[in-house]
Design brief:
Helices cover 38% and strands 20% of the residues. The chain has helices at residues 3-19, 21-32, 44-60, 140-155, 179-186, 235-238, 245-254, 277-284, 290-297, 307-315, 356-373, 398-411, 425-434, 459-492, and strands at 64-68, 72-74, 80-82, 86-91, 99-105, 125-127, 130-132, 163-169, 196-199, 211-216, 219-227, 233-234, 319-326, 337-338, 341-349, 379-388, 391-392, 416-420, 437-440, 456-458. A hairpin with a 5-residue loop joins strand 2 and strand 3 (80-82).
Length: 493
């Protein structure tokens, strides 16, 4: 396809999207109206209803849809609750086309008007170009934008540039129960012909500049428990004559990280990859307002003073955060008690090349060493109840090259290449199980407020996001064909 005919095709597609944006907004309004909160058991029927709506929408595109029953799960009170099905959709089987699998979710976080929303969270409301509603950006808006893009090709009777597969779930906000097992079961079947996987379930770093995400940190959560006996004691009777568990615990927690944020556990940085010059340059061009970030956080000062240092320590270096103490008195007023058992809770956001097993061993050995030097007779127990691994992709992968070109065409500028300081289990899950190329392709802005009151996506991002997905289909198709042709030529030679 010549560059002029390609440009004409894109113009035709973009004009269709602009003409039908009211229809696309109306579709989002219909989806937002479903209270598909996967966290609250009494709303499970709404989640299942949402899955039916999503399945029907894919079927209307002409896709083959399989709603896979995942059975049920047991709540802490013993109640069995049905899991919503996972939708596996398929559209197109042209052997000349690459196959792109899109993952998204249509369940949402809890939301109530009285929580501080300016509008009804389940009535999509447009104010000053922003579409407010629970799920608007996380993740109903991006899922619909992808579907809108596919729909545009069909409406214009254009040949599909790629084969599409869809994985849409309804339990992401509650831990994606059952998804990992399903992916493993389908790896040799549904995913056997998939070339690329795209996830659009995060945000840009900026309010205005597009971004592509290529990595996220993992998370290792720890409990450190100190116990002296079977009951709490009176500080007037025992204070000053026993080794108090809370005193031991505070000393242990204080040993973990210094005032500069440096983790003091020996060996913890040994596996962290050295920063390359190529990677450093990625940070220099990123649009990031340090003062705005500081203002949004409500803090007066960060540990580091430059944009590059802040982003490096958010994304590619490990961090340790202390979250709380269980068992200590935390009500208003004073209670002069010595707690018999206290549990400190902290986590380490680990980065690629850090081994969870090694990290756990380093933490345990460090805490046991600090504790032994205190000569305390109390009992120490260290455990790691949760460990999620980091994820890292290659920005030179065809997926990222195609997405970069699509963003340049729609938004008129190159995207920032960013990482996420938090943990994105689903990206790592898809990459590990399928061994396919995975990319995170957000269309929501930094101020969209996912999980917060007044969640929104701007009309601009929703509509331009639809266009950028459509442009991406064309770009990945061209790039994939070129790579395939080049590979065939090399084999012949």
């Amino acid at each position: 396809m010549s560059s002029s005919s390609s440009s004409e095709l894109e113009t035709k597609i973009f004009q269709y999207v602009d003409r039908h944006q009211s229809d696309f907004v109306e579709a989002l309004k219909e989806w937002v109206a479903v209270e598909s909160d996967s966290v609250q058991p009494d709303l499970r029927k709404e989640v299942i209803r949402m899955m039916v709506l999503a399945a029907d929408r894919l079927a209307a595109l002409g896709a083959t849809v399989n709603s896979v029953n995942l059975g049920s799960h047991q709540l802490p009170d013993g109640q069995d609750l049905p899991l919503p099905p996972v939708i596996l959709g398929e559209l197109g089987k042209d052997p000349q086309n690459p196959t792109v699998c899109f993952y998204g979710h249509v369940d949402v976080q809890p939301a109530k008007k009285e929580d501080g929303w300016k509008t009804d969270p389940y009535t999509l409301t447009e104010i000053d170009g922003n579409l407010y509603g629970r799920g608007a950006t996380d993740n109903k808006g991006p899922v619909l934008a992808w579907i809108n893009a596919v729909e545009t090709f069909r409406a214009l009777k254009l040949a599909m540039p790629v084969n599409f597969k869809f994985v849409i779930e309804g339990m992401e906000e509650a831990g994606s129960l059952g998804l990992e097992k399903l992916l493993k079961e389908e790896n040799q079947c549904f995913f056997s012909d998939v070339d690329y996987i795209v996830i659009s379930d995060n945000l840009w770093l900026s309010n205005k500049k597009p971004a592509l995400t290529y990595g996220s940190r993992g998370n290792a959560c720890f409990f450190v428990e100190v116990e002296c006996g079977g009951k709490d004691l009176h500080s007037g009777t025992f204070g000053g004559i026993i080794h108090e568990p809370l005193t031991d615990l505070i000393a242990l927690l204080d040993s973990l990280v210094d005032p500069t944020g440096h983790i003091q556990i020996p060996g913890i940085y040994d596996s962290v990859a050295a920063l390359t010059e190529e990677e450093r340059k990625l940070y220099e061009s990123i649009e990031f307002d340090l003062e705005e970030h500081k203002k949004n956080s409500g803090v007066k000062k960060f540990l580091y003073g430059t944009k590059e240092e802040i982003l490096l320590h958010l994304w590619r270096y490990p961090s340790l955060s202390i979250h709380g103490i269980e068992g200590a008195f935390n009500e208003p007023g004073i209670k002069t008690v010595i707690p018999a058992k206290v549990i400190g809770k902290f986590s380490i956001r680990q980065v690629p090349h850090m081994d969870l097993t090694v990290v756990k061993q380093q933490v345990v050995e460090h805490l046991e060493g600090v504790f032994s030097r205190r000569n305390s007779p109390n009992k120490l127990k260290v455990s790691m109840p949760l460990g999620a691994k980091p994820w890292l992709a290659d920005v030179n992968d065809p997926l990222y090259k195609a997405a970069r070109r699509a963003i340049k065409k729609v938004f008129g500028e190159d995207p920032d290449f960013i990482r996420d300081g938090s943990t994105v289990p689903v990206a790592r899950m898809f990459q590990t199980i399928t061994q396919k190329s995975v990319m995170m392709f957000p269309i929501g802005a930094a101020d969209d407020g996912e999980h917060s009151q007044n969640e929104k996506i701007s009309r601009h991002n929703y509509i331009e996001g639809t266009k950028v997905f459509a442009a991406f289909f064309l770009e990945i198709s061209k790039l994939h064909r070129h790579l395939h042709e080049t590979s065939n030529m090399e084999i012949k030679n």
